[in-house]
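Standup notes
- DV: blocked on the single-chain target, sequence here:
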Amino acid sequence: MTTSQELLGGDLADVRDAVHEAARGVTERYGRAYYIDCVHSHKFPEEMWAAMGEQGLLGLGVPEEYGGSGGGLVEVTAAMEALSMAGVPMATFLLTAFARETILRHGNDEQKARFVAPTATGESRMAFAITEPNAGTNSWRIETTALRNDAGNFTLNGQKVFISAADSSEHMMVVCRSTKLSEVEDRRAGMAIVVIDMNSPGIELQPLDIAVEIADQQFAVFFTDV
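- DV (later): unblocked, structure below
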């Protein structure tokens, strides 16, 4: 059997093994049977999520000054790997991690404290929305817009599809356009990223019936003057 040391070598292997050990503290308590029960009952695995917080997994990739466990994408990947090997993959964990990575790299201190810190403790989750019915994986063709209104604020309109855990997340990071696709010469221009409160008026969730047994339910999400 190939070991982590042989595959990765040195400190990286030690990091991976430490994360795997922490993950076992969760998966031994909340295994495949628990997970499948959540899938079939359309229930988010709240108990498992809380246990991940207790083990420090939710804070992986978040600096300690924002309540996190430190590390980066290597640690996040190792945690997702361990969960998947145990048969309990959590899409919300991975999506929250790389949504908040955008804020950690490009946001200001207030945004990090407001949106990132609560995800490290499990107090909140952040869904990630990029896929659209008419764009698929060609993200340059997305049509959802966040346009400035008469009051000087931004209004979000459009549709996303296959959005994980939209019903059980407090916030959603939405990849959209600040300039309509029809108004740009280079389709790469006019892109924007916004974070919205899921309690905002104008958000409609439509559950999708897909043949994938994951605990994070999938949704079509409609934005009307959000």
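- Follow-up: The chain has two domains: 4-89, 127-223.
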